[in-house]
Amino acid sequence: MGVLESFSLNGKVAIVTGASRGLGQAMAIGLAEAGADIVGVSRSTEQQEETKKAVESLGRKYVGIELDLRELDKVGAIVDVAVKEFGTVDILINNAGVIRRAPVIEYSEKDWDEVMDVNLKSVFLLSQKFARYLIENQKKGKIINIASMLSFQGGIYTAAYTVSKHGILGLTRLLANELARYNINVNAIAPGYMVTDNTEALRKDEKRYNEILSRIPMGRWGLPEDLKGAVVFLASEASNYVTGSVIVVDGGWLSR
Ligand code: NAP
């Protein structure tokens, strides 16, 4: 297989959580550009229309699932739907995530639980179900978890988010160790500061926005499209000997 061919996702099926907008939408489109059919997940299929149209315009298929990932007992069914619709599933992108900002001494238990359930517990449960499916069917596969700068740094006002994203790195490494023998690769992508709804509050605060901007060596905030290359690499045969690692896509932020 030539190297360009090894990046192809022709005939592959990818689950992308949080596919309605932001980074999940761009990654779903990137995977479809590389040849994959997509199973998208978010709280409303109506909100996924834009992603669905973009994927279909590339000649790929798109199936939307409406699920609130806080309903933890239903998370595993995502894999069942993908297999029912496409007969198989090869790639899992654990992207959906929420952030709740408050000073740590005021941080509510409700916000803590919501962030941890969406950002970490649902990722554990969905990855477990996906891995079980692959192992039972003797198939290889790829799991890609979306980490953050706050997988490495403490941040401020983001107690649950920071802990959940540190947890994502631990879970990535643990899964990589246990699943390597089954030919399941597990890696993470750590985006820097990206222009999406997730960072709207930060970008509205002109002082914070400029502080962050001035610290980014590449001199600009990231765009969702900036993740396409990394996600296609980790989802494809090109990364077959890469597991337990993190690709940082941050315009140089962590090197500073
Ligand atoms: P976003 O624009 O706010 O999108 C979040 C996505 O997650 C949406 O598709 C949303 O779908 C989905 N989602 C949220 N809660 C959900 C729930 N309970 N059940 C199902 N789906 C849910 O955020 P983003 O910036 O694209 O973030 C995507 C991932 O990247 C997150 O894990 C985030 O932590 C991470 N990240 C972002 C940045 C950044 O700078 N933007 C940096 C580092 C890491 P609906 O709301 O339509 O249901």
Automatic annotation (TrEMBL):
<dbReference type="GO" id="GO:0008678">
    <property type="term" value="F:2-deoxy-D-gluconate 3-dehydrogenase activity"/>
</dbReference>
<dbReference type="InterPro" id="IPR020904">
    <property type="entry name" value="Sc_DH/Rdtase_CS"/>
</dbReference>
<dbReference type="GO" id="GO:0051287">
    <property type="term" value="F:NAD binding"/>
</dbReference>
<dbReference type="InterPro" id="IPR036291">
    <property type="entry name" value="NAD(P)-bd_dom_sf"/>
</dbReference>
<protein>
    <submittedName>
        <fullName>2-deoxy-D-gluconate 3-dehydrogenase</fullName>
    </submittedName>
</protein>
<dbReference type="Pfam" id="PF13561">
    <property type="entry name" value="adh_short_C2"/>
</dbReference>
<dbReference type="InterPro" id="IPR002347">
    <property type="entry name" value="SDR_fam"/>
</dbReference>
<keyword id="KW-0560">Oxidoreductase</keyword>
<dbReference type="InterPro" id="IPR011286">
    <property type="entry name" value="2-deoxy-D-gluc_3_DH"/>
</dbReference>
<comment type="similarity">
    <text>Belongs to the short-chain dehydrogenases/reductases (SDR) family.</text>
</comment>
